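All the exercises in this workshop are built on plain-text protein records. Instead of coordinates, the fold is spelled out as a row of discrete tokens. Once this layout is familiar, the rest of the handout is easier to follow. The record below serves as our worked example for the rest of this section.
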Amino acid sequence: MKIIKYLSLIALSLMCLSCTKDLTSLNEDPAGFTSLDPAYQLTKIQSSLSGDREDAWRYDLGIASPIVQHLGGSWWTQHGGMYRVVEKSHWYSHWESTYPRELKNIQDILDRTESDPEMVNMNAAARVLRVYMFSRMTDMYGDIPYSEAIKGFTERKFKPKYDRQEDIYADFFNELEKANAAFDVAGKTVGGDMFYNGDVAKWKKFCNSLRLRLGFRLTKINLAEAQKQVERALTNGVMANNSDICMIKHMPINYTADEFRGNGRSQVFKADAISAGFRLVRTLVNYMAEREDPRLHIYGGTYVGDGIVGVSSNVIDISAFIEPLGVSPGAMAWNEFKNYGPVTDDDGNQIEVGHNFKFLQPSKYVSALDAPFFHLSFAEVEFLKAEAAARGWAGATNAQTHFMNGIQASCEMMALYPGAPPIGQSNIDALKAHYLPFPSDFEATMESIHSQMWVNFFLNGAEAYANFRRTGYPKLVPFTSVEWYTSGTDGVIPRRFFYPESEAIQNGKNLQEALGRMGGKNDWLVPVWWDKQ
């Protein structure tokens, strides 16, 4: 009986083991990965940074670009153009997409390549990209989860503290210094890289150019530290020409959920007829037109026809037959309900231009689905060098030379838009002539530099917004009202984005601590740390 009993127990045990093995196999995804090549992750991160239509529509085209008076006209530009909260979730879409997706993936790359000598350049590139993504986040929101962020799986930290922006920036500079030292131009290239096709030397220049940008961010709050970081960046080596631009070349792919290879901003413009309502704002249009800026008709075009620009055959380009007009800051096209009237084309045909077609729309060049997105340009570097020279930093003395180099680089950069005509040198020289004699007064110099920087940042609203808050240029007239609409802030330009309401539930204690440092309210009018008033 004992033998039978033991055999029965053994059989039962084997059955349990078999069941466990079967259950384990059932819980394994045969199509899944136990380890993912960091190159695939990097490609996904880079494409989603500017290929996510839903995020770009909300944080940039609907908020940041209208705040700086680049774009208006659309229903959703009320957020940034009128300083109104139409849908509050738009103000934190970037937070809720970036933390669980791009930042999670970049942290995973860092963790898995940290001790691999073959992946030293991948690790360094990931460090730089992590700083870039976090800098955009903290510049929008202020104090954010940083040092304890993305550590729920690795360290069981599910409720990360909100680091002070001052501490975050200090770590940015440490991380960029480490990355610069780690890059090995003789080592393995950066796999899956859509910015530079793996070119380590160019990644190193991007690293230091980003440090240059972030160093200047501190000029209002800590001038000595700003100078230190700017000079270190210039010593380490920044972008030298347009071939160093940090950009992604998108593919001609229209919107599909979770498909990021097309240009997300362009997908918004092509989501509905007449550029989905988006128009260039009069502030930008007039500034450029008054200076004969040849980039204006690369940025915007006047089109007649109820269709998709660059796609529909019934859309006619009348840019050559009508003066460039921008919509009033904050306004929609129907707020200025007056038809333009007829224009005459080269064949003598008259074309009626209604109120909805008279304003510049994003052009067929910048709204192409395969239009590039510029994360950091050589033109920006030259404008920042001009400011360094104006301040007497890094031994630089000729602000005018760098300023003119910036204009030259920005105009030449326009040829990177698909189908865009090259800008002739005579047109570039005519633009430069509007800034002669170059000002000798510091504030007048700053206004010239950063008004041009603002023009250069078209369709990079987040960076234009950050630079405007730092420098105060261009001198924007705040929105107060148009017909049927008034400002949601009595004409005060917002200084930051709202924290997500979900944080009150998921990370309430740490959120409250951060809010306590800004007066106790989730207030979009309270400046971030470096935006000292």
In short: Residues 1-26 have pLDDT under 50 and may be disordered. The chain is about 45% helix and 5% strand. Residues 38-238+490-533 form a domain with the Serine Threonine Protein Phosphatase 5, Tetratricopeptide repeat fold (CATH 1.25.40.390). The first strand starts at residue 71 and ends at 72.
